[in-house]
Amino acid sequence: MRKMVLIEGELLPHFCDAQFGKVSFMLDKLSTIQDVEHSYKYYQIMRDTQPVWYDEQTRSWNVFRYQDVYTVVTDYQRFSSQMKASRSLDRVLENESRIKLGKALTRLDPPMHRRYRNLVSPAFTPRALSRLSGRIEAISQELLDQVRAAGKMEFVADFAYPLPTIVIAEMIGVPTSDRPLFRRWADELLNSQIQRAEEPHDGDSNVRRMVDVFAEMSEYFDHMLEERRRHPRNDMMSELLAVELDGERLSTEDTISFCITLLLAGHVTTLNLLSLAIYCFHTHPDAMERLRKQPELMPGAIEEVLRYMSPVRALRRVTAADVTLGDVTIPKNAQVFAWLASANYDERQFAEPERFDITREPNKHLSFGHGVHFCIGAPLARMEAGIALPMILQQLPELRIETDQPLELLEGSGILGFKRLPVTFTASA
């Protein structure tokens, strides 16, 4: 039964074991900012009382302290990213003849992960990304020009969503005429990503719809690859076809998988980072005003947004052997969730973690993971935010979030972002 617990003078909802008073982490159902605030109090309880905890309902282990989370996400020999397809959609995709999907970087361990990552990483070098900076600025300006005279916008739909979608489309080499198609795929992938934890049956209409979307993307990128083989261009897809490491090239299937992964991961990460940054600045007006006067502080502010409101709440791994963390032994083949959002608030690592400090130093948050599985798209997300956010603060005076209605969050398992974020500002020509 849903119960309430009194923590620091507040009534907090949670699932409670009546005998032992253990908090059950149903954090995939966050839907309001208040839920997020409460979740950090849950994290603190778990860090202090049950830093490594087994959830009988989900049959998974949960890790909450910074050092333990760091171990889980970096020690690939004991905590593996290679997992069997467990979701209905995963299983159907593996057996769908229309779809050409290869290896997913997020589900590989070294040495295969290292070889595959080395093949795709040239697309994310500083030199490669520097070619995008001018376009990111131009796209940001186009989006701002469309709303400045109105004095208001829905930030997610009008800015945070289209910016990364257009940038990734241009990176890959998708023509302007196909952007609506690309945006529809991004919509479908995002909707799939934020599905509730309950799994549908294989025959469910949602699964079939997603299979059709993956088939459509697979066919589209397959045709693009064939065209790039005949007529290479100055885009990432042509570079992926040309790159070679120790005589090895990316297969067609692997290239298609990478493009789809980039569309989902690169799009969702930047979308949520931008909207969460606006929320943090709104709730900390002194920081926003300081950033307007000292835009050179924006890189540090972005890192603090990532720590303070991690867009990715948790990462999943599977134990390759029995593993002991602290005084708890996790058995082999167990599912483990490393709670990045909890690690980023661990008082053992961060002084006054509940304080939003744009000059925090050091700030070794784990929001992009760490080690061999450090998010390959992190430099792109940082670049997009680093260019767009100063432009927003400079060109939209008196920027505020409309608070007439409760803010809705994406109700996804392991991610944090806004469905909508209405804002107002001083209109200008």
Automatic annotation (TrEMBL):
Q: Which Gene Ontology molecular-function terms are recorded?
A: heme binding; iron ion binding; monooxygenase activity; oxidoreductase activity, acting on paired donors, with incorporation or reduction of molecular oxygen
Q: Which domain of life is it from?
A: Bacteria
Q: Does the keyword Metal-binding apply?
A: yes
Q: Which residues form a coiled coil?
A: none
Q: Which UniProt keywords apply?
A: Heme, Iron, Metal-binding, Monooxygenase, Oxidoreductase
The protein's matches in Pfam families, at most eight in alphabetical order, are given as: p450
- What family does the entry list? Belongs to the cytochrome P450 family.
**What PANTHER family does its record include?**
CYTOCHROME P450 YJIB-RELATED, P450, PUTATIVE (EUROFUNG)-RELATED
InterPro entries listed in its UniProt record: Cyt_P450 (IPR001128), Cyt_P450_B (IPR002397), Cyt_P450_CS (IPR017972), Cyt_P450_sf (IPR036396)
Q: Could you tell me what this protein is called?
A: Putative cytochrome P450 YjiB
Q: Does the keyword GTP-binding apply?
A: no
